[in-house]
Please model this.
Amino acid sequence: MLKLKKALLIADPQIDFCPGGALGIKDGDKIIPAVNAYVRRFAQRQLPVFITRDWHPRRTKHFKAYGGVWPRHCVHDTKGAAFHPKLRLPKEAIVLSKGMGPEEDSYSAFHAYDNNHKGLHHLLQIFGVTELYIGGLATDYCVKYSVLDALKYGYKVYVLLDATKGVNLKPRDSVEAVRQMLAAGAGTMTLADIAPVPKKPQRQEKSKRPRH
Ligand SMILES: [Zn+2]
Model:
């Protein structure tokens, strides 16, 4: 059962990280229904929901063309940088951008900022969050670095195994990333561990209809 002090953090559910995107992750889009379900369950409990996005400049050392590892992806204000069209966010969700500087990789959500240039850690402190539930794209980069940073900051962390997929530049990168996160102190969970909140309060006066 979720109580206060908990928050959801979803990394980079963006078009460029889904199949057909500039840096498409195999089955990256398949996590969206689970992400939506987590978002709904946290929002129903009035728990904060944080979503990060890669928000790169056109020229950055992050890209292969300028000395980095990656093809050009998630250039700010382009179609590929938009959230997946099936992602459903409540208006209270807090969007944080990262990788805006031309020298930054910024894999970790702890290098992401909201519109007022407030960083994730600062915002979590304001909300009094002590436990983070982290999923998104990709397991072996932004999720891993966010989880490891969260643990360093002293948060209790759960990796949402059914709401994350890896890039897997090497085939076992995601498996290895999960191993590293667990070794550093993270726990894991899936949607089955969080009960959905019923839409309407159950009416006690309504008795079951007899079966015919
Ligand atoms: Zn990036």
